[in-house]
Write a structure and sequence with these properties.
With 418 residues, the chain is α/β, with parallel strands linked by helices. Helices cover 38% and strands 15% of the residues. The protein is built from 14 helices and 13 strands. It has a 6-stranded mixed sheet, with helices on both faces. Helix 4 runs parallel beside helix 5. Bound molecules: ligand F0G. The site of ligand F0G has 22 residues, from helix 5, helix 9 and helix 13.
Length: 418
Amino acid sequence: MTELRCSNRACGRKLALHERALACPRCGELLEIGLVRVEGEPEQVKRLWLERKLSNDPRDRSGVWRFREFLPGGYELEETITLAEGNVPLIAGNKSAAWAGVRDLWFKHLGWNPTGCFKDLGMTVGITEAKHVGAKAVGCASTGNTAASLAAYAARAGMECRVYLPAGQVSHNKLAQALDFGARVVQIAGSFDDALDTLLRNSDGELYFLNSINPFRIEGQKTAMIEMLEQFGWRVPDYLVCPGGNLGNSSAFGKAFEELQQFGFIEKAPRMVIVQAAGANPLARMWRENGQVLRPVERPETVATAIRIGNPRSWKKALHALQFTNGMAIDVTDEEIGEAKEIIGRDGIGCEPASATTLAGIRKLVRAGQMEPDARIAAVLTGHALKDTDYIIKRFQKRTESGSQTERSSSAVEMHAH
Ligand code: F0G
């Protein structure tokens, strides 16, 4: 059983579960879904989740709705919009582990979702909720992936979709997806933060808003951690490492661990590490400086365009997740991201640049003596390698031009006369 409430625990205001609101009417803070009760004992529920893998119910085929004991409810089967999202493997990264100096490294590859990104996990719940409350049109601001995912789920639901993108800063692959799924694309001269402000200002009440400040999206994203722990046989890893942009995803993961612990499904949460790009690092900077209030980065800049965000809206929720899990926030440079991404490619896995912050972050922490080499580490890869092909081609073109090939990075394009 769930409820809609203010995320500020000192306020505690409650709302009707399906009320259309994005902020607390009393204090203005973000809302969250509260998990009030879970039907059944943990061992029983865990068994039920496994048994559902044999079922043909579309909700059981979804790696999100299979865990519906932890999700908001009240939806009819027909209004549940799913693309069989989730169901992604946990995969060992052996070369990646050696490169980072660790021995027990696992990637949870959320880029192997229907639109190539973790956003699908949140969108199946967000769009289902939008349909449930009778929305005809949905919208978001995006660095690209949210737009692609929203466009796909809106198309499935037969809804109009409007996406606000920072002009010239979104990878062609993601833009192409949004267009392919029939979204109306609004290009904003400015950053992601400007695009989000513009959308919030111009929202006319007709448009159902599906950025990660929407609490229903967070609920879907939570299930990535439930699925991962099930794959680990409920043996909790020592660390969970994930990239941080607008900080919705890290908030969702922290919430999953907190609820699983509260209801007796795990005894202890993994330590969460949130990794940002050095040019878009407001949370990492605040953490380093032991600050209490986030100072936005005015002009965020990084090759990892997915997380080129200076003013993350969910920072308080992410900070809570770090405090609850005894975690850390760090940052890595664009060059470190590039190197890590190449190694993940050599493991035959691949990912987009933002996801490679995780491996770069692990190496940095091990070198600094802040992460034990024999710890069990789970790193979340958030986007598919094909999400930003221009980045890959440009990086190898630059290398070929400068002739700076190393043994490790031996990829090259050779031209031969025929
Ligand atoms: N990784 C990828 C591939 C992303 O696309 C994003 C966010 C993140 C990590 C960070 O997640 O924002 O929840 O901290 N992309 C958003 C978008 C902003 O519009 O697609 P976060």
